[in-house]
Inverse folding.
């Protein structure tokens, strides 16, 4: 695999060699308990005193307390608890009622969560408000000035972890000069990059974290200004002057001391001008790679080690997968919230456009990063841009060398849109277009030079307006077939839409809505699939309680679909909330008693409508907080699908036929080396978005093949494997950990197959 280029230093950094050596020395030679009074303990105590003195010099503080804590979160908790305990005591004594607790709208989540937690636990019930920020990411000082007189605590950042925006600490200090509020400054991203001037600015609390600057995780510091109240969050043996009990983390403290020594010496850390130069090189590469790129923070107001950018028409998830395929490690924002995959709340607080919030990527490097690493990163960034252009995703997309055939699936918050394409005839159509995809679909068609022959809706949608007309308008005239169309987009006076050797026909199946229909994909005499909208969804039947529904004919429509399509034809739904990709009437009838009853003639239309209405009473929103289009009665099964590398190799040794399916998108696997496990293992790149196009062939082939799915982290491949198992492909697995753990598999493969 390519050498990893780590550009996510705002999330964490590697431990420096000197920090590692210092930690190992403490663990092996100077392992004493610093509370012990014998010689071994005294040697440990000296380490703590020396590191604390070094920290005071680096931070330029002469008085106040400097506590060693486990990290920034503990430091924040201690600061917030201390401030709120002081405010509670003041209230009990009949003092002024400072009723506001303020925090910056772009703060790390640890800050507002700590405030809310201790405010509730101490039963203070103070009002908690977010300080607004401008489009530059800086605090609204006018708003703060208006609220400061009633504030008991104000929490701001020195520099933002997502955008790198440096707060106007002098401006905040001036606003708070005559305010009674205690002031905490989250200084995590400042250590080694900014002069905080803690004493001069009258900052009451400043938490720091070691692992953001080459020390190990689990060690941090909290500065407490002289005279500022402090309440221990941990009571016990009285360590740290009884302000933070618990045996000290000696390896962590020693390692942090080594980093502080390097900061003082200035030998390892690059000066500001050099860091700005390195950032400039990355910015130039990004501009060349991605046309229309937008940078979300003013470089003159930001840390020189942080870049936050968005690319038009490309989500942050796509960009993260792309960079990861090139072994460039970046993030979409705070590491603590990375798994949520939501638009950046920091950029939302700045008032930036929705697309920028949903496309944002953070690239951050440390102050010791080498020029050679930045140079290599720039080369790979250019390769990433080329991969996206070749895939037709970006606005400057090129003609793809391998035009896709079959069915391409797009999902937005559970709603599904399909592109059906034929590369030989260069014709395509879209089924159930989504407003969020208009630009992307138009770009896809333009890039490939396909003729768009239809944009079809399976029904009149209740959760969004059809974007068909917007899509037509977004295309040049030469790529849009001009014919009269029905309200759902079907060409008038047309029995079938031809796509090369395949054709699409229409089947009316009213019920979910009065105009619901299915589109049948046929090749020769073989029915390949049916696009059924919300009539049948994985785990549910489409609801029929809308004003435009036709509940009394729903049962007959299901029977008609059964007669025309049969029980085993693939059904592609208009909504798929659990990533099950497709279904069949057979699969759903086995799980949905209502469907089974109506298909087998055990329930008439009225009884079916009545039972269905009972199911649909008080349906709540989906997990995306969108309108639920069906009452889901089938619980998603948790089937174990992960396979360890050694188990996969055992299958090969046993002579089983194995196909390795790479479900990453084309722009990902074109940046990675080819994966192979030797002669006994075939490899097929089948992007997850294109999986619907191969399902009918896989189902027809039967259960004789073991399909091993792999992706970047194992998340997508595991979901796909679950979906294939549900369809009856029992010998389907997902490589545990995905390509992130692929070196383990590669090593095992070499050992087994090299000879």
């Amino acid at each position: 695999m390519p050498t990893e280029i780590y550009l996510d230093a705002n999330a964490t950094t590697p431990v420096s060699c000197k920090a590692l050596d210092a930690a190992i020395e403490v663990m092996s030679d100077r392992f004493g308990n610093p509370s012990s009074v014998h010689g071994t303990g005294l040697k440990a105590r000296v380490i703590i005193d020396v590191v604390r003195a070094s920290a005071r010099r680096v931070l330029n503080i002469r008085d106040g307390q400097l506590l060693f804590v486990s990290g920034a979160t503990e430091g924040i908790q201690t600061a917030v608890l201390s401030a709120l305990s002081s405010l509670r005591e003041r209230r009990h004594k009949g003092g002024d009622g400072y009723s506001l607790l303020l925090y910056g709208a772009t703060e790390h989540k640890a800050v507002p969560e700590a405030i809310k937690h201790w405010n509730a636990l101490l039963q203070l019930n103070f009002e908690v408000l977010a300080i607004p920020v401008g489009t530059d990411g800086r605090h609204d000082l006018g708003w703060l000035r208006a609220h400061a007189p009633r504030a008991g605590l104000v929490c701001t950042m020195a520099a933002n972890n997502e955008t790198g925006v440096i707060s106007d600490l002098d401006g905040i200090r001036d606003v708070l000069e005559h305010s009674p509020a205690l002031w905490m400054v989250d200084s995590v991203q400042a250590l080694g990059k900014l002069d905080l001037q803690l004493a001069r600015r009258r900052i009451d609390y400043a938490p720091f974290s070691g692992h953001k600057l080459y020390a190990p995780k689990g060690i941090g510091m909290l500065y407490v200004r002289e005279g500022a109240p402090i309440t221990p969050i941990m009571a016990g043996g009285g360590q740290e002057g009884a302000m933070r009990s618990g045996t000290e983390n000696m390896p962590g403290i020693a390692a942090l001391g080594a980093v502080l020594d390097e900061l003082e010496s200035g030998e390892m850390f690059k000066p500001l001008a050099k860091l700005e130069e390195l950032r400039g090189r990355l910015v130039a590469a990004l501009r060349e790679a991605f046309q229309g790129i937008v940078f979300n923070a003013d470089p003159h107001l930001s840390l020189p080690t942080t870049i936050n950018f968005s690319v038009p028409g490309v989500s942050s998830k796509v960009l993260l997968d792309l960079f990861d395929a090139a072994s460039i490690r970046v993030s979409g924002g705070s590491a603590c919230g990375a798994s949520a995959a939501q638009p950046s709340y920091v950029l939302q607080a700045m008032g930036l456009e929705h697309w920028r919030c949903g496309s944002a990527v953070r690239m951050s490097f440390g102050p010791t990063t080498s020029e050679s690493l930045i140079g290599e990163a720039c080369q790979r960034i250019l390769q990433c841009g080329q991969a996206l252009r070749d895939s037709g995703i970006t606005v400057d997309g090129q003609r793809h060398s391998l035009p896709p055939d079959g069915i391409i699936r797009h999902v937005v918050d559970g709603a599904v849109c399909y592109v059906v394409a034929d590369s030989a005839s260069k014709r395509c159509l879209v089924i159930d277009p989504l407003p969020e995809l208009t630009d992307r679909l138009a770009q896809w068609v333009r890039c490939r030079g396909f003729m768009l022959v239809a944009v079809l809706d399976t029904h009149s949608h209740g959760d969004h307006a059809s974007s068909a007309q917007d899509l037509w308008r977004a295309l040049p005239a030469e790529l849009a077939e001009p014919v009269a169309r029905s309200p759902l987009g079907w060409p008038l006076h047309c029995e079938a839409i031809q796509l090369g050797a395949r054709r699409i026909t229409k089947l009316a199946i009213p019920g979910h809505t009065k105009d619901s229909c299915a589109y049948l994909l046929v090749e020769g005499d073989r029915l390949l699939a049916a696009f059924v909208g919300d009539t049948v969804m994985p785990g549910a039947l489409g609801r029929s309680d809308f004003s435009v529904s036709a509940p009394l004919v729903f049962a007959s429509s299901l029977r008609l679909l059964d007669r025309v399509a049969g029980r085993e034809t693939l059904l592609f739904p208009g909504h798929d909330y659990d990533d099950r990709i497709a279904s069949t009437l057979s699969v759903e009838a086995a799980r949905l008693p209502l469907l089974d009853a109506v298909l087998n003639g055990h329930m008439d239309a009225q009884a079916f409508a009545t039972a269905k209405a009972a199911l649909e009473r008080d349906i709540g929103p989906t997990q995306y907080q969108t309108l639920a289009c069906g009452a889901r009665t089938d619980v998603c099964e948790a089937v174990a699908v992960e396979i360890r590398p050694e188990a996969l190799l055992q299958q090969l040794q046993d002579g089983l036929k194995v196909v390795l399916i790479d479900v990453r998108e084309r722009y990902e696997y074109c940046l990675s080396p080819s994966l192979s496990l030797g002669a006994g293992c075939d490899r097929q790149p089948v992007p997850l978005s294109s999986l619907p196009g191969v399902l009918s062939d896989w189902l027809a082939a039967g259960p004789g093949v073991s399909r091993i799915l792999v992706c970047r982290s194992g998340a997508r491949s595991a979901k796909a494997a679950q979906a294939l198992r549900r369809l009856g492909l029992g010998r389907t697995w997902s490589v545990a950990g995905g390509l992130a753990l692929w070196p383990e598999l590669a090593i095992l493969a070499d050992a087994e197959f090299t000879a």
